[in-house]
Amino acid sequence: MARVRISDVAAAAGVSTSTVSLVLNDRTGARISEETRARVREAAAVVGYTPNSIARGLRTQRTRTIGLVSDVIATTPFAGRMLAGAQDAAREHGHLLILVNTDADPAVERDAIRALVDHQVDAMIFATMWHRVVETPEGLPDRTVFLDCRPADGTRPAVVPDEVAGGRAAVRELLAAGHRRIAWLDIDEPDPPVASGLRHQAYREVLAEAGITPDPAWHVRGDGTTAASGRAATDRLLDLPPHRRPTAIFCFNDRMAAGAYVAARHRGLEIPADLSVVGYDDQQLVAGELDPPLTTIALPHYEMGRWAAEVALGAREPPEPDQPYLMPCPIIRRDSVSSPPAAAPTPAGGEPDTTP
């Protein structure tokens, strides 16, 4: 089917092609009557004319598009909320979001950036699935925002989760329920994610504020972030003598918390009557589906995606380049936290009893 041209609109409206161009490009300074403008627009609708976005982009230096380059977000359901947030913000500002998922392949990433720049996208978002520090890829345009990561050189605006504030909220939730023996279920990896260190920092700070010196045995690490690793690490906690055994666990993520549930139940323990558990992520099909549903800290994927698109389009003021914006991580209260069991004495002064 032949593309409808501007000359077809001109013929249908009985005007020149230059008049059609002025009307359809909303040139308000041109001396064209409202009657003629209405006739041109009606003719364009009748013949089915749509403007050539590439040609318009060459004239205006704007293509009404945003490029988003990601690693594996598009194939990860819970992190896909970032795409939804970015897409909603782009659409509200009259832009189309163009996504390229690179599967973390550097060659694909380079080609994607080059192709989007050649397409003359108005702005770009560089996103990762995990909060981490990244080297700035070559070829990124000036109007680039980093999403769920921050550039090592601190030269571009970035948005990441406020991991420390989220961790503090998790530990304070357990303290407010009356717990003093609170464990931190971490991950054991050669190059742990940024979130691990920040959440552990929050754990230590809140316990220190409460006058609690944690028993070193309360910090356990799982081999990875799976439910199986969470179960194995929780087993080590539950092997501690009763007077040292924690009454609550703050887990690195929801999947590890699911493993903690399994370990507890294999010991005949009930959650939260015998053991309270708090996770992190609010992962879809995990946190809310556990029995009982898991109290957790939500990663603000949708909000971060919106923020990144709005900053990229100039609709929101960015922070200082060397200071990423910390998006709040709200606590989602469900049913996995209660007061500690009555038979769980607290060592005097909150100090851990390290006797075997």
From TrEMBL:
- Residue ranges of the HTH lacI-type domain? 4-60
> Residue spans with biased composition (Low complexity)?
345-356
User: Record's superkingdom?
Assistant: Bacteria
Q: Which Pfam families match?
A: LacI, Peripla_BP_3
Q: Which PROSITE patterns match?
A: HTH_LACI_1, HTH_LACI_2
Which molecular function terms from Gene Ontology are attached?
A: DNA-binding transcription factor activity; transcription cis-regulatory region binding
Query: What protein name does the entry list?
Result: Alanine racemase
- Please name the source species: Promicromonospora soli
Q: What is the lineage of its organism?
A: Bacteria, Bacillati, Actinomycetota, Actinomycetes, Micrococcales
